[in-house]
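Check this:
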Amino acid sequence: MSSSPPDEPAFRPTQQARPATAILADGPSRAIVLALGEARARGVEALAVTEQSIADTTPRLVRDRLRALERANIVIIAERAAANGQAPSRWSLTPAGRDLYRLHSLMTRIVSHAADLHATTPTDVREGALDLALESLVDPVVRRIATALAMADRPLDPVALEAACAPVPRRTLYRRLGPLVDHGVVLRHTGRTVPRSTSYELAERWRPVAAIPVLSAWWESRHWQRHAGGAPQDLAGILHAILPMARIDADRAGQRLRWAVEAEGERQSATLLVRDGHLLVAADDQADQAPAAEAAGTPAAWATAMITDGTADLTISGDEALAREAINAVRAALLAYIR
């Protein structure tokens, strides 16, 4: 996707508008976006989308999804249905919709790398991996599990995992955990002790999937009014997931910097520490120490900084070089699978 501002009027989403990740996690909505995007790639500017072209749907479901996508400024009617009912309406993607179509391609590439899929991998396996990733990212229970495992400095046994995910009911936790283990997102280790021991950890290959909610936020900030851009909603969770893969000059060892997301009068911050050429989230007893640098901005500003090299909308103070090195290190780790 281009990093230049889209050539379209400012759009204010309704209260019901969903983030890009949630839109693409919905099968019928994603099928509509893909059908219209692929038609345009073939030179077809508009397409009649019906239940025949979207598997496992009904006319009402297709109409509902089209109207929801229209309200979100993703699709538009290019040609209205004939008055005699013989021809359905023809739809096309808006500029936001075309970028969402490209965003799907990037998300697919990220998940394919994470799941170690190849060109010969069957389509249904590819779709299954993408479905799992998108559905997981919009599921608060799965996000809590992933954050708990990402924040841990060692594999968690069931007792520790349940405590970290409280107040999620135990049955719900393991029902969500099962598919993550089956797809290799979470590694389950079984010991040979008596009684047998079990522990869980987040698979390294899946950490760059943290880029998907950031890409979603960037899309929202570009195509919806800037203040409406979706977060990174969970700065700490994203950082814990990706920091083990970020590399920074080892000469910066011991230095601290603070990142802050500011939106609607609220401020969410995290203190980062440089250790052995890596960045990590500082422990609570270290977070109060004065940082050498600070970077702060709106969710849209952070999404832009993480996806592009644009930091103009961030407020950077203190050791500016350190702040920029850290941003570049995290961005390189987030985008490792799509560079």
About this structure: Residues 62 and 226 are 30 Å apart (CA to CA). DSSP finds 13 helices and nine strands in the chain.
